[in-house]
């Protein structure tokens, strides 16, 4: 994996990228950060949850339809895609200029999911498909967040090495680092 440490080189990579994947655990802030990047860098925002995976009523599209939709979306020349599903890295990474990996602590992710639920419970948040109101998290979802680093990060690393070994990866471990990257890249509100 081609890791770029947070600093001037990371900022240069971010400013130059036209196709960015933002990955990380649920609750890490992928959607918010992706939307900020897309508007600041004038790139199309794509949410895997909203644009690829879900239909109204929390009905999941078939795997082949998800892959078809995603293939069409990544064919575009400029985008920011948020979502960590490594099963679609074979489609995304060959077209990706930069991966931004949000690796916040599980406690921070759980707290942010709680804040999200408090804000959107029963309504559809902007990065989710129509007809998919924010639910109370169940045990399986909370376990996914709690075990993300141990159970899912090794697979993500493996899939990056398999499908995008030359794609630079910037790892950010806090909101402070997320803001610092934007600052270094000259991205302001």
UniProtKB/TrEMBL annotation:
Species name: Rhizobium wuzhouense
Recorded superkingdom: Bacteria
Signal peptide: none
SUPFAM superfamilies: P-loop containing nucleoside triphosphate hydrolases
Name of this protein: AAA family ATPase
InterPro entries, per the entry: Cytidylate_Kinase-2 (IPR052922), P-loop_NTPase (IPR027417)
């Amino acid at each position: 994996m081609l890791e770029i440490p947070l600093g001037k080189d990371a900022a240069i990579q971010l400013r130059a990228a036209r196709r960015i994947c933002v990955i990380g655990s649920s609750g890490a802030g992928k959607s918010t950060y992706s939307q900020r990047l897309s508007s600041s860098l004038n790139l199309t925002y794509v949410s895997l949850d909203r644009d690829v995976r879900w239909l109204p009523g929390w009905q999941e599209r078939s795997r082949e339809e998800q892959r078809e939709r995603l293939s069409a979306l990544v064919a575009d020349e400029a985008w920011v895609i948020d979502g960590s599903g490594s099963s679609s890295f074979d489609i995304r990474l060959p077209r990706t200029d930069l991966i931004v990996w949000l690796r916040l602590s599980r406690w921070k992710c759980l707290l942010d999911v709680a804040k999200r639920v408090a804000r959107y419970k029963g309504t559809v948040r902007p990065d989710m498909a129509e007809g998919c109101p924010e639910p109370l998290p169940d045990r399986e979802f909370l376990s996914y967040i709690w075990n993300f680093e141990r159970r899912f990060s090794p697979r993500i690393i493996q899939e990056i090495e398999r499908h995008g070994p030359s794609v630079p990866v910037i790892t950010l471990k806090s909101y402070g680092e997320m803001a610092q990257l934007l600052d270094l890249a000259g991205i302001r509100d």
